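go over both lines:
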Amino acid sequence: MAVSLSDLVAKADQVMQPGRLADYCPNGLQVEGKPEIARIVSGVTASQDFLEKAIAAKADLVLVHHGYFWKGEDPTLTGIKRRRIKLLMDNEVSLLAYHLPLDVHAEFGNNVQLAKLLNMEVTGPLETGNALSVGLIGQLPAPLSPESLAGLIETRLGRKPLHIPAGNSSIKKVAWCTGAAQGYIEKAIKADVDAYISGEISEPTVHLAREGKVDYFSVGHHASERYGVQALGKFLADYFQIEHCFIDADNPV
């Protein structure tokens, strides 16, 4: 079966509601391809490697978290950006991208999906009073040692996290935010959690974790954001009775 591109984009926009958020890039359809969609291929970032693999997998539309046209970047279609967009247009493949809307979504969001993966119960937002908080607070079903939580993360995400110990013997209350959210550790400290999980880490994060007595786990930007696009891609494919697959183009960061 196939669905019109316009119907698929309309449904995706209805679900993701990109207008709710001020973002660093346009959300929704970024590159228009063929008018009928029979197969969605999802991935984290619309890199050349991912696009080549998606086209080989016969994608009509690629769905990603990190698309193009970021604020502050050179707007000209030259070099790397030209090659990527030319590849899409030569093959009539559409590019559908959702950044912050995919981070915060209550069902398909990266942060909710990470919670499911690590069996954490969401109890509230990391940003107090913000219904669209990117980060979340929750708890594990039972206390774990920091080493056990690191092992759980490694098992579920398929990569070993960088763990910064802070002297806690057990972890129950956790805050987390996928991607480049190491700066939110100060909010986690104020929330009096036992541990904070994010994708990336910076040099100051180490000192804040130790001094704030919050065990910190850097699990990888890419690794932490593989799950929202899969959930949204599956939903759209099931809704329109079309095909969907996820391609995990390698990224160690």
Q: What stands out?
A: The first helix runs from residue 5 to 16. The mean pLDDT is 97. The longest strand covers residues 136-144. The two ends are 37 Å apart (CA to CA).
